[in-house]
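@channel anyone free to eyeball this complex?
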Amino acid sequence: MAITYITRRERFSAAHRLFKPEFSDEENFRLFGQCSHPNWHGHNYELFITVKGEVNQDLGYVINLKQVSQIIREGVINKLDHKNVNVDVDFMQGKLASTENLAIAIWHQLEKPIREAGAQLHCVKVKETENNFVEYYGD
Amino acid sequence: MAITYITRRERFSAAHRLFKPEFSDEENFRLFGQCSHPNWHGHNYELFITVKGEVNQDLGYVINLKQVSQIIREGVINKLDHKNVNVDVDFMQGKLASTENLAIAIWHQLEKPIREAGAQLHCVKVKETENNFVEYYGD
Amino acid sequence: MAITYITRRERFSAAHRLFKPEFSDEENFRLFGQCSHPNWHGHNYELFITVKGEVNQDLGYVINLKQVSQIIREGVINKLDHKNVNVDVDFMQGKLASTENLAIAIWHQLEKPIREAGAQLHCVKVKETENNFVEYYGD
Amino acid sequence: MAITYITRRERFSAAHRLFKPEFSDEENFRLFGQCSHPNWHGHNYELFITVKGEVNQDLGYVINLKQVSQIIREGVINKLDHKNVNVDVDFMQGKLASTENLAIAIWHQLEKPIREAGAQLHCVKVKETENNFVEYYGD
Amino acid sequence: MAITYITRRERFSAAHRLFKPEFSDEENFRLFGQCSHPNWHGHNYELFITVKGEVNQDLGYVINLKQVSQIIREGVINKLDHKNVNVDVDFMQGKLASTENLAIAIWHQLEKPIREAGAQLHCVKVKETENNFVEYYGD
Amino acid sequence: MAITYITRRERFSAAHRLFKPEFSDEENFRLFGQCSHPNWHGHNYELFITVKGEVNQDLGYVINLKQVSQIIREGVINKLDHKNVNVDVDFMQGKLASTENLAIAIWHQLEKPIREAGAQLHCVKVKETENNFVEYYGD
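replying in thread with the prediction:
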């Protein structure tokens, strides 16, 4: 009866912008700084998805990592990679494209398919640059 | 009365294979994919051992890191580095050589000597590739 | 009502030495090994400061990361970078300059200003080398 | 009379798109794949600028690294960071925003100010992702 | 007329062993140390393939990186990943499975297809561990 | 007749200071900035030593990497690690403790023993921080 935590890293390169559409560029700059630049900027995001569960004695794993990777790609990476977070991503519509909101929205994309595959989503970590990252544990 | 967590990274390069000896190569491939390749493959594993405890006011540390490193080398690294996980490692005999089982087995190798050295084992993290790692906290 | 954890990495290069002033060089060497070298040595320290809080629905963040960075620089980095931890740093006076004590002292430097800025300090992680790091959670 | 090579890393986060304006989205996709996505994507670019020269016996360096960093920031980073490579950057106007063209254009931005500062530009390396980078040596 | 160098990183995890079949295990250990362990060990190898050529003014690149990646995968990665370098790899038959020989053999696998694709192979770099790598430039 | 380049990474943690003893602290600060801080600062230096030579057909290598590592440790690392570059290191006496001078001095420490071991020293690379490094090729 051993609970282990398994983490899979995936990556996506995307454009985004922090802004509120009801505000002027000046007001957005005051709130969000250079991240509000109207012509977009972008990042190589790194995504660390941690799932937990009991190790199946027969197979030596909690869940097949290939399957975890496939769930992440279908639910998240294919929608974000080489895309514009604000414009192109269905699960980010109507939300500020911050790393915090991205982590929360990715949790809601993955929680159910991970559960149906027999494990439990534990943490979504989104690393925006080598100096900044956000973690969300579902609370 | 301050509890700190100290992590030491060690590394080992080893061969392994995921398979059940009672199954054919075809069945093993169906279960474990290319990780079941009969002639072995291998990894540069990274091991992150986290211990916790109160900081000794007189010495400024919980436990001497040199001692932690020595415990890890004696109990784990010397048995795994430049070895075959399935064939050569006493504490992995009879177990599937998965990263999950490796993390759990390493916990049981280290829990007692770390305790006897005056600290408490908190986490064993085994990083198999830059995209995959497993954590075990003893539960 | 979503709690997220945001981590900011900052860096500082500093000299230090592990030793007790009341002991001889030989006794210090016996206790702290080469880290007690009398003419100092040094490191490129990496500091990971994790804060937590509810995401502000209007702004998409818990706390402005620029502000977190500024608090860390004013309270910690400016006092440590290109300095001698033992000699120059006010908040380390009278303490052994270990990574453990550094993490705890940095916590006490940052806890209040982070709180006043509207978030909660969650973890101080000090990475001394690629093989060693210490975490402190305030307990 | 010792020639040394000094490299400074700087970083910028930018949006871009590979496309030819005279082509349709379909034609651009055929040529450039997902990198042609019309709503832009982006990267955390890393820039490695290598300069060479004789070490000044009196000062122990070829050129003050602070000055190199300032030249790179003024000529390149300030124009690219949190910007759109295709839309916002004067020295990329009329050019395909490829990593190759970016490296060549950055060379032409930096060659003269580095020379006037007393060193010689040796290499511009632009790293687009952890898997791809381009080097240009001025030939 | 600008010559640029483009580098693509690919990875493979493989088992290997340094030994001469005509020697005893003891003699091989004396020559190759723990790398000669009879039951194999393994690595996460990183491969950096650098090609050079003139930038096509019309397309902004020397060669399509997707094509470079495909050539490397077909000629090298598919034969090495999750395999045993000594036993499974056609282009390593009869050779000592050293990093040096691997780099040279990979050069001969890639030189012709890279040339036929319109670029010139410049360097094969094989990184065995974070502390060791070998480069071969075709001479 | 294949020439390969083999690189070995070693690390050392040291204190140093950039200053000219005949100048005042103010003058040194004007010349060297915060690197001239009188109470020292320090770094985790990374050293990349590249040697070249023909691959021995019988042994599959140019030179035994263990031997390269031993030469670097004896001639360089043991003198620098956990030391003060300005005060403790015989081969840096009377020199400004800059990364440039360090790279040149390390070259002169290693050139002869590498040659006597049957290979040729090609490059000494000293990485001071993640943003700065110096290379010296013996010219």
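from a first look: Chain A has a mean pLDDT of 97.
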